[in-house]
Amino acid sequence: MNAAPPVPDPAPAPGSAPALDRSLKPLPKAPVRIVHLGLGAFHRSHQAWYTQHAPDAAEWGIAAFTGRRPDAAEALSAQACLYTLVERSAGGDSFEVIGSIVEAIDGADVARLCRFIAAPETAVVTLTITEAAYGLAADGTFDADAPSVADDLRALSAAAAPETSITRETSASGETSAPRGTAASGGARVPGTPLGRLVLALARRRDSGAGPIAVVSCDNLSANGDVARRGVLGMAAAWGQDLVEWIGANVSFVSTSVDRITPRTTDADIAEVAEQCGYRDSSPVVAEPFRNWVLSGDFPAGRPRWEDAGAVVVDDIEPYENRKLWLLNGSHSILAYAGQLRGHATVAEALADPLCRKAVEDFWDEAANHLRSEGLDIPGYRQALLERFGNARIAHRLAQIAADGTTKLRMRAVPVLAAERAEGRSGSGAALMLAAWIDYVATAGDFQDPLAREIRAADSLDGAGRVEALLRLVNAGIAEDADIVSLVHRLCGSFSATTAAPATPTHT
Ligand code: CS2
């Protein structure tokens, strides 16, 4: 079997373009050995790319499940799960068909998820479920009271009861099927969160005797493997101590740092693929040429040789993770909030604004004080980021990055702020990121955040009380420090559209 990247036939005349899957020679599909939760553009530009480029790709197919909606699975399934990766550099685009995803499935199809995870061939579960989906409270502990988590805890506890049909069905045949958000036939509700679904499927794996497995978080969280473990064990407690113990002994939680800028696909991208490749692809994905994957942890049932495709396996992931989370994601958040306040729409536009650029550089200086491990090459990393962010052909929308601010700022601003203050400095660069977010939520008509309701309530207060209430949603510790509250309060208003930029303006 050969899972090497397929090569399209010569392009047909524009206008009569066949669908992508029809224009390729039929491809052998690798057997499913990886299950992915969170089928979105980033998974397709990153883990699916690494899997396709591993030398043993022919042995490792991915069954990818969507999150909230079935759309991505339907679109991909309609073209045999093949899609085009458009690698977009400042100089031009190149195109590659990716075939490592072999099944694309609606996340609500928990029966299929249970079947795949209970199969002994399945060795790895990867996750891109977003930072907000790990069920963490502002203090980093598992938040059993969050409404979607509480629903799933009830669902899992009901499913674990021997008399419920969900248990009978999953243990007898591997089938646990119910329409989205409704009860399974015997009355037990199917979990709706990714981790709730994963716990149900892990219970099935335990019952089937398929043995140990690795869960690999690919979300932008520090110590994401530990966070995933906390979330999974928190959910599993509702099922019972026996499952908690089985997971403790059989599930390895791998931490990773993932990197590849992947803006949302636009209609223009779809049209470009049709024109350049000569076939119709409803679901291409656009990404920058740069990619990076650092992994740390055990794979008890094996994994593809991702390191031969450029992934890096390390014993201590923390320095890499912090470098990426603080320097890349942290500055992304500054640009997202400050940039939109200044009227910009994309990362490249915001970076070209001297006021935003200065905020980024100041924050980087602070973060660099705490990135001291050997080999991190912070100057080189910063320079590369300026080039990556400056790639204006990648229209990376600030509105996309601005989502889920409470969860993201907890990882991106708070650790640098705390580390700076612990060394006797103000941490004003990190505080400015928080201030920009506070100004942004006041002006943004609509934004996505797991705590959107609480943000609206806090935002209705005034003055320092408002700042304190908003900071509390990010991290209780910073809200309780009067000096930090007053620093952030003073920095609010720094990015109003009329604030004068330093010399050499490039922005109108
Ligand atoms: C971004 C990330 O949306 C965001 O929060 O900061 O998605 C970022 O583009 C990726 O982590 C790049 O690897």
How would you name the CATH homologous superfamily of the largest domain? NAD(P)-binding Rossmann-like Domain
Instruction: Walk across the major sheet and give the strand order.
Output: 5-2-1-6-7-8-10-11
Extract low-pLDDT stretches: 1-14, 167-186, 503-508
What composes the largest sheet? 8 strands, mixed
CATH class of the largest domain, named Alpha Beta
How many distinct domains?
2
Shape: globular
CATH overall fold name of the largest domain: Rossmann fold
Helix content: 40-55%
Q: Mean pLDDT, rounded to whole units?
A: 91
- Number of E strands: 11
Class computed from helices, strands and strand pairing: alpha/beta
- Rg over CA atoms: 23 Å
* CATH architectural group of the largest domain: 3-Layer(aba) Sandwich
| Bound compounds | D-mannonic acid
What amount of the residues lies in strands?
5-15%
Helix count, per DSSP? 22
Distance between the termini: 56 Å
